[in-house]
Each structure stands twice: as structure tokens, then as C-alpha cells.
């Protein structure tokens, strides 16, 4: 679902200026409304949302500065960019003190105006959500995210085990941090263990620690992750990857909060809260005999499912602006502009790598934009509209605005094939398919396997960008 940016209003008694600003903004894809007087605009401002107003100072009747005061006293928080032919320093100071975004003089510089517009447009939504416990790092305003945050508010203060389920890159780790942050353990450590990256022989030592001489290479005592998390939270990421033979040891530690370091028979205790996460269907893993049923039930106390990004496209504007700001800051490069056309492109893509992929795509776009409009280099542009017509049997007018599971899988499969073909089936590396999709090579390989993709298979139709 595409979330439109509200219109930008231009108030100027000079028709030439109105047209020039209108042309510039429409070329960037913004919707524009024009007004020749402050009074007409004041009436409009009360009726419907707008992104910002480009406002002349010297206007017949009510001046721009008077209008600014009038809007403020009516409680209307309209971002204002002043554009004046007779600017003076005291006047601009007065306007900026009263909260204007920018004070520009005519003839105006297009980049300055677009920069100010960008600032105004990004401020239309607040980037952080307020929750009961203050500000959260979880960005999003969709119903899905709000429900997830309210479930987190419920479970965080308890010591209950939480199992976070979701596709790769959906933000499972972000949610785990949020639960810890909102818990009574917030001042204590949050220890993350990536269960997929531990060599098989080291699992036990990694979880429970070892004593000097316990095995070749154990030169000194080592504290395991359980002990390190004492008093805090232990986040078991990618729990579905734990080998079967270690699962029983883990189960005991979870049940009794007791364990022994490798090579030591003294029993230790740790007071830890467990959060686990996986992108696997653990129920299916149990059925296939790869995951212990008792461990599954021990973990699945409070399941928290996070939807893939394609099911919460309303979050894209907020996330995109957040990542654009972040990229500019982290990479010390100029801020790029997010145009409505760019936003629409982001909202029409399938995002198999979810938020991680979005973040990578935006980072590349910010580097390439060099302070201009961001252009997104997506592996495939899905130009077909999402709504899918129903078959002929159903009466006309019953159009679906969603995809069924088989249709979604087909899209994902087609997209993977396009990316694999584009990269010559190169999986790893900066120009590999995993990087393009914004997912880990191991995740890509497991998807290729799961979907039974083969190199000889005809690729999906590539839609020209
Ligand atoms: N709601 C969100 N708000 C802000 N940033 C987010 C959000 N969700 C995810 N991210 C960012 O997206 C990236 C991927 O998130 P994260 O690592 O939490 O995903 P994950 O589901 O744990 O992935 P994996 O299954 O591959 O481990 C990170 O850079 C994270 O900061």
C-alpha cells in the first residue's frame, strides 16, 4: 500500500513565482496547491493535512508573518518555508524564532528550496514512537508494529520466555533489545548468542563455559554466555540451528537455570531471562525430528510473530527516512532527498530480505545521490499492480487487494531467480546475490534449497526498470 505524501501549498501573490515553484515541486513528484493570498490558504490549512507551505512574506491583506502567528495561535502546526523578495535579517530571525523551517530570498536557489522541503516532509511523521516506557528504537507506525509494541509492553516486565518468529531481516533482534530495554533487567547485560555461527564442538563451552585444561586449547577458565547474562537477558538468536545433541543440555539449563562448565562437576546457577528467535518453522522442525518437542514447548511460552515488510508497507516511509538520516550521519555524506517517485518505488517492491535489505538499498542510494534525489537500485521493479483480479467465476467488482500464499511464493521465487541470474549465481561477495538481496549467504542457500531452484531453470520475466 502506497502512503501518499500530503500536498505542499505555495502562497504568493506573484503568479510567476507560484508557477516556478510549482514546476520545480511537480518535477520532483510532489502534489502542489497554489494560493494568491494568505486568507485563502488559512482556510485551506484548517481543512486537510499538508506537508508544508512555501510562504511569501509581503502579501496583500494578511502578511506571511501575521499568518504564521495566526496559525500558531489556532494550534495548527504547519511547517513554513518563507520565500521573500525583501528579506531583512531581523525579519528572518523573527520568522525562524517562531518556528519557520527556512527563510529564503528571491531569486531562490532550487536546491535550497528542495532541501528545506525535504526537511519539512521528513518531519511530517515523527521518526520515533512514544510508548508507555518512553521512546523506542523500533521504527514503524503500522497496525502490526503497534500491536507488536503493545504485546512487548505486556510481556517485558515479566520474566517469561519469549520466542520471536519472523523471516530474516524483519527486526527480531531489534525486538529482543526492546523487550530487554523495557524489562526490570534493563540495567543488566543483554547477551546475544548466534546459534548458527558456533562450531559444533564449541557449543557447550560457548553456552556454559569451561575450565582450564578441559580440552586441547582450553588454556584458561572461560565464562559461558549463561553466566555472563546472570541477572540479565540471554538472547538465543537462530535457535533452530542448535544441534540435536546439545538441545537436551540446553533444555536442562532452561528448566533448572543450572549448568556445569565443561571439565568441572560443580553445578552453577544463573538468573537469566530467555528470549529466542528463529526464521524457521519450529513446529515443522519438531515434526521432522530435528528439534526436541520438549525444548520447543519450553521456548514457546510467549510467541511474538513479526510480519515481513511486504505485509506492512505503511512502515516504509518512516523506515526509509530513518535509514536515510542514519546513512548520511554514519557515512558522513550529504543528506539525500526522498522524492514521492522514489518512495513509490520502495513501496512497490517485494522486499524478500525485509528491513535489512531496505537499509542496504537506502545506504547505497544515499552514497550515490551526493545530496540530490535518492534513486533506488532494486534487483527487480515489480511494475504490475499488486491487486490481483479474481477469476471469471466471481462477479465483477470483487477484486482482491492481496496475494495468496502460493502467489507470494511464486513472486519470491521469481525474484530470487532474477537476482541469481543477474549475478551469474554468485552467492557471496559484494557483487553476489546475497548482498543484493540484503540477506546472509547461508539464508540464500537455504532458500535456494527449500525452493528447489536450479541454474537451468528459466528465469522470471525481467521487468525493465
Ligand atoms: N522496526 C525497526 N526499526 C528500525 N530498524 C529496524 C527495524 N527492524 C529492523 N531494523 C534494522 O534492520 C536490520 C535487520 O534487523 P535484525 O537484525 O533485528 O533482523 P533479524 O530478524 O534479527 O534478522 P536475522 O533473522 O537475519 O537475524 C538491522 O539493521 C536493524 O537495525
Automatic annotation (TrEMBL):
Domain Sigma-54 factor interaction residues, every copy: 138-367
Molecular function terms from GO: ATP binding; DNA binding
Domain Response regulatory: 7-121
Modified positions (4-aspartylphosphate) in chain numbering: 56
Gene3D superfamilies: 1.10.8.60, 3.40.50.2300, Homeodomain-like, P-loop containing nucleotide triphosphate hydrolases
Entry's Gene Ontology cellular component terms: cytoplasm
Keywords: Activator, ATP-binding, Cytoplasm, DNA-binding, Nucleotide-binding, Phosphoprotein, Transcription, Transcription regulation, Two-component regulatory system
UniProt entry tagged with the keyword DNA-binding: yes
GO biological process: phosphorelay signal transduction system; regulation of DNA-templated transcription
Pfam families: AAA_lid_14, Response_reg, Sigma54_activat
Name under which the protein is recorded: DNA-binding transcriptional response regulator, NtrC family
Organism: Terrimicrobium sacchariphilum
Lineage: Bacteria, Pseudomonadati, Verrucomicrobiota, Terrimicrobiia, Terrimicrobiales
Amino acid at each position: 500500500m502506497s502512503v501518499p505524501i500530503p500536498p505542499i501549498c505555495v502562497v504568493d501573490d506573484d503568479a510567476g513565482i507560484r508557477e516556478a515553484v510549482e514546476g520545480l515541486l511537480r518535477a520532483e513528484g510532489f502534489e502542489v496547491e497554489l494560493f494568491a493570498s494568505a486568507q485563502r490558504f488559512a482556510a485551506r490549512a484548517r481543512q486537510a493535512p499538508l506537508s508544508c507551505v512555501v510562504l511569501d512574506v509581503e502579501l496583500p491583506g494578511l502578511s506571511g508573518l501575521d499568518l504564521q502567528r495566526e496559525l500558531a495561535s489556532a494550534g495548527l502546526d504547519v511547517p513554513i518555508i518563507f520565500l521573500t523578495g525583501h528579506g531583512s535579517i531581523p525579519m528572518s530571525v523573527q520568522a525562524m524564532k517562531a518556528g519557520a523551517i527556512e527563510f529564503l530570498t528571491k531569486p531562490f536557489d532550487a536546491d535550497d528550496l528542495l532541501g528545506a522541503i525535504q526537511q519539512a516532509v521528513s518531519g511530517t511523521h515523527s521518526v520515533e514512537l512514544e510508548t508507555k516506557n518512553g521512546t523506542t528504537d523500533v521504527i514503524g507506525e503500522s497496525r502490526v508494529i503497534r500491536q507488536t509494541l503493545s504485546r512487548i509492553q505486556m510481556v517485558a516486565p515479566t520474566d517469561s520466555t519469549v520466542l520471536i518468529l519472523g523471516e530474516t531481516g524483519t527486526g527480531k533482534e531489534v525486538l529482543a533489545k526492546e523487550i530487554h530495554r523495557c524489562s526490570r533487567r534493563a540495567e543488566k547485560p543483554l547477551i546475544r548468542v548466534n546459534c548458527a555461527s558456533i562450531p559444533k564442538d564449541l557449543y557447550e563451552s560457548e553456552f556454559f563455559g569451561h575450565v582450564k585444561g578441559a580440552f586441547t586449547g582450553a588454556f584458561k577458565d572461560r565464562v559461558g554466555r549463561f553466566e555472563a547474562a546472570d541477572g540479565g537477558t540471554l538472547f538465543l538468536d537462530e535457535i533452530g540451528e542448535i544441534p540435536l545433541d546439545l538441545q537436551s543440555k540446553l533444555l536442562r539449563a532452561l528448566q533448572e537455570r543450572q549448568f556445569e562448565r565443561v571439565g568441572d562437576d560443580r553445578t552453577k546457577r544463573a538468573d537469566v531471562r530467555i528470549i529466542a528467535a528463529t526464521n524457521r518453522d519450529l513446529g515443522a522442525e519438531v515434526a521432522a525430528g530435528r528439534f526436541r518437542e520438549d525444548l520447543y514447548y519450553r521456548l514457546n511460552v510467549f510467541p511474538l510473530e513479526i510480519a515481513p515488510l511486504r505485509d506492512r508497507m505503511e512502515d516504509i516511509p518512516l523506515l526509509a527516512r530513518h535509514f536515510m538520516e542514519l546513512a548520511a550521519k554514519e557515512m558522513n555524506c550529504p543528506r539525500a532527498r526522498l522524492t514521492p517517485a522514489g518512495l513509490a518505488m520502495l513501496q512497490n517492491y517485494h522486499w524478500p530480505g525485509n528491513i535489512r535489505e531496505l537499509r542496504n538499498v537506502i545506504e547505497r542510494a544515499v552514497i550515490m545521490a551526493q545530496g540530490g534525489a535518492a534513486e533506488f537500485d532494486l534487483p527487480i521493479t515489480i511494475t504490475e499492480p499488486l491487486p490481483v483480479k479474481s477469476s471469471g467465476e466471481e462477479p465483477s467488482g470483487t477484486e482482491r487487494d492481496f496475494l495468496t500464499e502460493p502467489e507470494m511464493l511464486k513472486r519470491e521465487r521469481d525474484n530470487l531467480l532474477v537476482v541469481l541470474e543477474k549475478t551469474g549465481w554468485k552467492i557471496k561477495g559484494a557483487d553476489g546475490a546475497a548482498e543484493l538481496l540484503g540477506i546472509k549467504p547461508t539464508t540464500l542457500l537455504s532458500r535456494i534449497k527449500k525452493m528447489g531452484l536450479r541454474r537451468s531453470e528459466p528465469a522470471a520475466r525481467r521487468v525493465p526498470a
